[in-house]
């Protein structure tokens, strides 16, 4: 395999290479940016047993089934514009609170590749739309031709940044399968890292989340037992390198 450098192609050295295709990377290098990102959050509680079934060991599910439904409208980013929605399950790692990103749906192939390959984010392609009705924003996720998720929030009052849910540490399971047989060639629990840049605006209000199922994707069991507050946030973000916090195969320690 060869790479092109300064107008010429050169053989890829054994010590070089980070992403594929190696001669024309699918996505840009870290740090990457998001501008004018509009995010909806909905606090909720789900069945703790169902939540636990979606967590990899050694994560421990929140006994109350705490979770956050999230939807993002991203007009400009290093990956291009896209929409995104998903679920973060409250849990703990070695006794410390965290959130595990169990499901994330979006409509941008570049962002899917980057999220899966870099951090192990459970990204899947879906059709995602937003609509505004008076003071209500509605996000709908359609996958396999059927409505899979609907999230809505209101803008009722200005909120302080400290009122918003803090989805950190944000943990993901990064797995790369073996080429020579079943099993994983790489399996790591990864902490996603990002930071807010510049000023932001946020609102509080009411929220609602609904999950459905298709023949292939079963989200209905995660329907909320109870729903808390809804929030809306608009601001800029940059992504940073993450951290490997647990290596299942013992090939990396940090």
TrEMBL record:
Top-rank taxon: Bacteria
GO molecular function: lyase activity
SUPFAM superfamilies, sorted: Acetoacetate decarboxylase-like (SSF160104)
Source species: Salinihabitans flavidus
Protein known as: Acetoacetate decarboxylase
């Amino acid at each position: 395999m060869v790479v092109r450098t300064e107008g010429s192609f050169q053989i890829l050295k054994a010590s070089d290479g980070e992403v594929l295709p190696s001669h024309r990377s699918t996505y840009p290098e870290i740090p990457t940016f998001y501008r004018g990102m509009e995010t909806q959050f909905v606090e909720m509680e789900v069945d703790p047993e169902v939540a636990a079934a979606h967590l990899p060991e050694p994560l421990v599910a929140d006994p109350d089934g705490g979770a956050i439904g999230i939807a993002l409208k991203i007009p400009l980013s290093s990956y291009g514009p896209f929409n995104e929605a998903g679920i973060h399950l409250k849990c703990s790692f070695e006794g410390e609170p965290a959130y595990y990103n169990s499901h994330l749906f979006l409509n941008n192939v570049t962002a899917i590749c980057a999220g899966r390959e870099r951090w192990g984010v459970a990204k899947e392609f879906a059709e995602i739309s937003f609509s505004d009705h008076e003071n209500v924003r509605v996000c709908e996720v359609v996958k396999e031709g059927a409505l899979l998720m609907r999230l809505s929030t209101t803008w009722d009052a200005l909120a302080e940044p400290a009122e918003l849910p803090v989805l950190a540490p944000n943990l993901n399971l990064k797995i790369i399968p073996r080429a020579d047989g079943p099993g994983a060639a790489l399996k790591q629990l990864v902490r996603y890292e990002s930071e807010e840049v510049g000023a932001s605006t946020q609102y509080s209000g009411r929220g609602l989340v609904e999950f459905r199922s298709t023949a292939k994707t079963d989200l209905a069991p995660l329907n909320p037992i109870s729903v808390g507050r809804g929030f809306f946030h608009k601001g800029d973000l940059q992504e940073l390198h993450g951290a490997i916090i647990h290596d299942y195969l013992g090939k990396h320690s940090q």
